[in-house]
Amino acid sequence: MKVFFGLLLVANIAFAIFQWLMPYEQLFVEQKKVPPAEQLQLLTDANTQVVSEAEVVASVEAETDALELAVARVEQEVEAERARLVNEDNSDKRVCYTIGPIKDKARAIEISGRYSGKQAVTALKSSLEKEYQGVMVYIKGHKTRADAVRTAGKLAARGITDHIIVNSPDNPNILSLGVFGLKRNADRLKARIEKMDFKVETEARYRERTIYWLYAEQSSEVDVLQLLESTDNESGISQIPTQCLPG
């Protein structure tokens, strides 16, 4: 045991002498050096452009001014277009209507005076039209007037006394038994006479006559004139809206 402690003491003394004689850097392997942290660089020292707050405000104000100018220009253009449309308003300021049919010329002139007296422009027009009279019940086929008279005598003996002899280029000596405004009345008489073994016919009858129409136009900025009377309406005269004539 004493020998072991003596050897250990000699080894420690020898290591201490060796360490004193050898430098520290040569005794231990040099460790890899860690590179120092990169030093922070100020923006003022770097090649970077720094925008000040004043410059930012000035830029925003410039863009705002440009936007306001653009808006003002658009508003001016819109206002100019609106004014142009108002100045070019060519819409028709008239209301037009036709009044009729009027069968009597004197009455047509009188009605025209009512409207022209209220600042309406009027024009009276006429046309030749067929006027419906009704349905005629008749017997034809008579060679002479005397034949038609004999037929009328036979009907009168059986209670049919209304008759008249009518001549036309195509059918002379027609024995007319009446003209009925309602077709059912004409059909009723026809059926009655057919039971007497007479060959009866019916035909719608018309006559040509002059019909008058009043054209009137007025301003659309006032109430539409309504100057027809009840007697006019009872005669079939109406006020009909119509398209205005080119003015």
List the helices and strands and how they pair.
Blueprint: H1 2-21, H2 24-27, H3 53-87, E1 94-102, H4 105-116, E2 121-139, H5 145-156, E3 164-166, E4 174-180, H6 183-194, E5 201-219, H7 230-234, E6 238-241
Order of helices and strands: HHHEHEHEEHEHE
The CATH class assignment of the domain at 132-207 is Alpha Beta
Q: Which oligomeric form is depicted?
A: single chain
Helix fraction, binned, reads: 40-55%
CATH names the topology of the domain at 132-207 as Alpha-Beta Plaits
Radius of gyration: 61 Å
Regions with pLDDT < 50 over 5+ consecutive residues?
none
The structure class reads alpha+beta
SS strand fraction: 15-25%
Distance between the termini: 147 Å
Helix count?
7
What would you call the shape?
A: elongated
CATH superfamily of the domain at 132-207: Sporulation related repeat
Summary?
The protein is α+β, with helices and mostly antiparallel strands.
Question: Would you kindly provide a written description of the structure presented here, covering whatever features stand out?
Answer:
The chain has 247 residues and is α+β, with helices and mostly antiparallel strands. Among the domains are: 94-129 and 210-241, Alpha-Beta Plaits, CATH 3.30.70; 132-207, 2-Layer Sandwich (Alpha-Beta Plaits). It contains seven helices and six strands; from the N terminus they run H-H-H-E-H-E-H-E-E-H-E-H-E. The protein has helices at 2-21, 24-27, 53-87, 105-116, 145-156, 183-194, 230-234, and strands spanning 94-102, 121-139, 164-166, 174-180, 201-219, 238-241. The chain has a six-stranded antiparallel β-sheet. It is elongated, with a radius of gyration of 61 Å.
